[in-house]
Design a protein that fits this description.
Length: 115
């Protein structure tokens, strides 16, 4: 992805192609590739969303990133990928820095669905 970082059209195409792999990497079954998945997510966010809002597909990965570290509600032990918390934090920082308005919308929608 470093080689195509300046081509947003191509990055969008790559994002669509690798999305299922990214999602799988954030599941207990995909733990073998979690580091690579989080790195790809961070790279997509950093290179592709400087001048445009983050795609709906990548926003769907956001709660899964939180789940990797935090687990279910009330889970005192944390999630199944707690060892990757440092990388997850890096990806979360990319979400916030690249699309603060989208982040506020995600927080609002999440709060609204909990009511």
């Amino acid at each position: 992805m470093e080689g195509i970082k300046d081509d947003t059209n191509l990055l969008n195409q790559v994002e669509n192609i690798i999305y299922p792999c990214l999602l799988h990497s954030l599941t207990p079954e995909g733990l073998d590739s979690i580091d690579e998945g989080i790195k790809c997510i961070s790279m997509l966010l950093y290179y592709n969303y400087e001048k445009q809002p983050i795609s709906a597909a990548l926003w769907r990965l956001f709660p899964q990133l939180l789940h990797v570290c935090a687990g279910e509600d009330g889970d005192m032990e944390g999630g199944y990928g707690f060892e990757s918390v440092t990388q997850v934090i890096g990806a979360l920082k990319c979400y916030v820095s690249r699309d603060p308005e989208g982040m506020c919308k995600q927080a609002y929608d999440s709060e609204k669905s909990n009511l």
